[in-house]
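User: I'm writing a short report section on ligand binding and want a predicted complex to refer to. Could you take this sequence and zinc ion and write out the structure as tokens? A short remark afterwards would be nice.
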Amino acid sequence: MSTAFVTHSDCLKHDMGAHHPERPERLGAIEDQLIASGVGQYLARHEAPLATDEQLARVHPIDYVRAIRQAAPQEGTVHLDPDTAMNPHTLDAALRAAGAAVLGVDLVLSGKFSSSFCSVRPPGHHACRARPMGFCIFNNVAVAARHAIHAHGLKRVAIIDFDVHHGNGTEDIFQNDPHVLMASTFQHPFYPYSGTEDPAPNMVNVPLAAGAGSREFREAVREAWVPALEEFRPELILFSAGFDAHTEDDMAMLRFSDLDYGWVTEQMKALAERHAKGRMVSLLEGGYALSALGRSAVQHIKVLAGLHA
Ligand SMILES: [Zn+2]
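Assistant: Sure. The structure tokens for the complex follow:
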């Protein structure tokens, strides 16, 4: 077994309302496609632990973590921002999502697995140091990166973000941090309208215009991401794996295909093999068209697991 699959049933209980696109069924869509494709049987399933305050405080001020704990309702729903709400299960889901990131890193850096995929929600890449935003509460990929650096002593961690939205929270946390290189593509201009104004030197941001598809995405990866990553020589590659740039996803207007997600994973895997002993940890971000989300996630996971022909 080479790939761990980290998830938790608490992540299914976080529910922001019947019409909210970031809904529990997203995780089921991935599970369904893992079964349909036969890929699921090759993954080692792990339950996500709850992240600790110490792990979260490497990314967020401890007062922010406490404020989130205090905001958690006993019943009903509280809104943290217009798009982001907590029900009585959200706190545990958010702690499991960040805890999955920690376990995903531990399983890979201990040498037990070469890669891991964390199928969790709420997502994380819009969560800033001290602000929830855009369906996100704790920045899961940032918790993963800081855990790799602080608990495992890594010096260089890459974050690959192919979600259709710019990972403004991740950028807020890591801009000018010499231990982290973030490479991203995102639709622009589009929510959250960031990523293009004078990004820090460790941010490789490639904005894509509405309507851009495989060709523009692959060009960005080949011409912007790969040279920067080769120079950085990451010891671990993390993915903010959002699948909402898919052509079937009407959250946004990019036109990626299922196969683009396998392709980009292959490119990053080749880099990981050259510099990072093949080590990759991937965390689910967006992706709201259920069938496309499931199929695209499986293309990505297949390559992580070395199951592609
Ligand atoms: Zn997104």
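A remark for your report: The chain has a mean pLDDT of 97. The radius of gyration is 17 Å.
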